[in-house]
Amino acid sequence: MSDNEKRPLTPEDLASINFLGEVQLAPDGKTVYYDVAYINREKNTYQGQIWRADLSEAQEQNGTASFTNWIVGYTKLTSGPRRDSTPRLSPDGSRLAFLSDRADDGKKQIFLLDLQGPGEARQLTTFQSGVNSLVWSSDSRYMVALVETPDDASKAALHARPETPDARREREAREAEAVRVSGNPIKFEQMQMRADGRRSLIPGDAHVQLWLVDTRSAQVQPRQITNGPYNVQQPAFSPDGRQLVFSSTRDQQQADLSCISDLWLLDPFAEEAGTSPVKLTDSRGPATSAAWSPDGRRLAFVGHTNPRDGSFLELNRVWLLDLDDRGKVGPARCLTADFDRPVANLLNTDLRVFGESPLAWSSDGSQVYFTASSEASVRLFRVLVEGEALPEPITAPDRHIYSYSFAPDTGQVAWASAAPHNPGDIFLQRLDANPDDEPRQLTQLNREWLKGVLITPPETIRVPSQDGTTEIEGWLIKPPGFDPAKKYPLVLEIHGGPHTSYGHSFNFEFQMLAGQGQVVLYTNPRGSIGYGYDFAAAIYNDWGHHDYDDVMTVVAWVIEQGYVDPTRLGVTGGSYGGYLTNWIITHTDRFRAALTQRCVSNLVSMYTLSDIGPSFVESEFEGDIWTNPRIWERSPMAHANKATTPTLILHSEADYRCPIEQAEEFYFALKRSGCPVEMVRTPNEDHNLSRNGTPDHRIGRLGRIADWFARHLAND
Length: 716
Description:
Elements: E1 19-25, E2 31-40, E3 45-55, E4 60-61, E5 64-65, E6 72-76, E7 84-89, E8 95-100, E9 109-114, E10 122-123, E11 133-136, E12 142-150, H1 153-157, H2 165-180, E13 206-214, E14 223-224, E15 232-237, E16 244-248, H3 252-257, E17 262-266, E18 278-279, E19 287-292, E20 298-303, E21 317-324, E22 327-328, E23 333-334, E24 360-361, E25 367-374, E26 377-384, E27 392-393, E28 400-407, E29 412-419, E30 422-430, E31 440-441, H4 447-452, E32 459-464, E33 471-477, E34 488-494, H5 508-515, E35 519-524, H6 533-537, H7 546-560, E36 564-574, H8 576-585, E37 593-597, H9 603-609, H10 613-620, H11 630-633, E38 647-652, H12 660-673, E39 677-682, H13 689-692, H14 695-712
Helix pairs in contact: 9-10
C-alpha cells in the first residue's frame, strides 16, 4: 500500500497494536518463547498470551549458521480472556512458567506448562497477594517466588493457601466495619507510605519475601525462606542450586533516606524460614541484578557508590565479586569504571515502562553481557572480566532493546526491541557477529496494522548549544505530505527523568500529532543520559538553566529552517518534562499553547509528598529544602504569576511519583494569576497512565492531547 493510501494515526489506533513483552531463548537456540498483549476495547482491559517461535533445522551453509535462511513457525501456547505474561523457561528447556491473572481472585499467580507433551498449564501457586516475579533453580525443579507477605508469622503461614471461607467472612466483616466507621486509622513508622503503581497505602506490617516452590509436587506447599521487616528483590540461584543471592536493604533508615542495598547469600533449603543470610557487600549505593558465573565462584552485579542518588544521575556500573564457600573474597571490583554510560534501560517510549537490565555470563565465564543506554539507543554490550578493556557493543545503535535472552552454548542471543517505525519485534543474532550485521527478525507482530497507517521516519538533527560548549541531539517528525514551502505548527515534546532520553524507540503520541499536521520536535537537552556523566550532571543544582536554554535553542534553530510558523508553537512533556513545560511558560510567552502532564511544579512539596521525594530532590540539588533556597527558586510555582500561555494540565489522581498536589498547586496559581488554564484529573491511574493505564483512560488522554493542539495551533 502506498503512502497516499495510508491514513494518519488516531488515538483509537492504540487498540490495534500488539505489545511484545519478554523473550526467552531455549538452550538449543532453536525456540523463542514470548508474551504478546493487546487491548480489549469492549472489556476495557488488556489480554495477553504466551507464544512460541520455532526455527527450522535448515540453517547450515558451509558449516555456519545462516539466519537469513531459517524458517520460523509460530504457535500460541496459552489462551483465554486474561493476561498471561512474564514467560520463564526452565534451565533444561522442558517446562515454561509464567504469570497470569486467570485465577478466580484475579491475582497474578504462577502457572506451569509442560513443553514435552499436550495439556493445559496448571496453576502452581495461590498466594493471597499474588506473585510479583519468579526465578527457576538451576536443576529445573524449584522456583523462588517474590510475594508480599505479612510480617506476622501466623498470618504468613496461611498466606500461600487460598483464603478459607472463614477467613473471607472475617476479612469482609473487617472491611464492612471500616466502611461503617469511615475507615480505620493506620500506624506508620517508615517514611514511605505510598508507592507509585500501588493503589493502597504501603502496609507497615507486610514486606516482599522469597518463597520456595517445588514444581514437581502439587501437594507440597510453598515455603517462606526469608522474613523480617524489609523487602527482598532480584534473587538468583547458584549454578549448583544450593545457594541463593538476593538484593535487600536491611536498615530502615537507609531505606528511608538512601538508595543503598546489599547482596545477601542464603541457603534456600535451610529448615527455618529467615535463616540468617550472609551479607556479601558493604555498599555505598545500590547492589542489584546479581548473576552467577558458570562455575559459581563469582557474582556480577549492577550498582554505584553514591548513597544519595535516587534519580539515575549516578551511572550504574557492572561490578564483580569473588566468592568462596563462605561468601565473598575481597572487595567488589568495577568492570566498567571507564565506561561513561549507564547500565540501564532509560529510553523513553509511551508503549511500555522502563524494565530491568539483567546481566548474563558467557559460557566460559570470561565475559559479562549487559544493556546500556548509549546516545539515543539501548544496546547490548559485553565486557571482559579480566583486563582493562572497555565494553564493546554487540548490537547496532539504532534500536531500543528492552528484553533479551542468551543461549550461551550455541552463541546466540534473542532480543525484543522497538524502533521509531516499529512498536516491537523479536530479533536473533550470533554473539560473534559484527554489530553492524543485520540480525534476523523473527516476528512481524504489527505487520497488518503498519500496512495501513502512516508512520513517518524521524529526521535526526544536531544543534550547537547556546553557550557553544556542547551539541544537542534532536529529532523532527514532519506531517504526511510535508511541503517545505508551507508553514506548519510545531509541538515541542520534552522527556521525563530528567536523566532519561529520547531516541530510537516508538512513540505513539509523536506519530499521532504529526499525523494531524504538526511538526513534532523532541530533543535530548543537557540532563539527558547516554552522552556521558558530565552532560547529565550539567543541570545538577541548576534545573531551568542549561536544559531550558537547550530546548529553546533547538526550537529557534528549527524555526530558522523556514517551514515552522513561529506564532503557532506548542509545548508538552510529562514528569520532569512537565516541570520544564511549566518552567518554560513561566519564563517566556513564545508558545501559543502548553500541555503539562504528570508534572512537577513545586520542588518543596515534591520533596515531602512524592514516593521518592527526599532521595530524588537531594540527588538533583545540594542540601535539602531547609538549607537550599534554590529548590524553591527553581520551582515553577515561584514564577507562576508570570504565565500567560493557555495551558491544559493532565494528571492522574493515584500518581504518587509526582502527586496530584503538583497539578493542583499549579492550576490554582495559573487561575489566580488570570492565565487561561484547564485541568483534567484521571481517577484510579498512576504515573504511568501513558504507558500502561486503563485502555479507556489511555486512549482518552491521547484524544485530549490531539484536540488541545489541534484547536490552539490552528491557522487563524
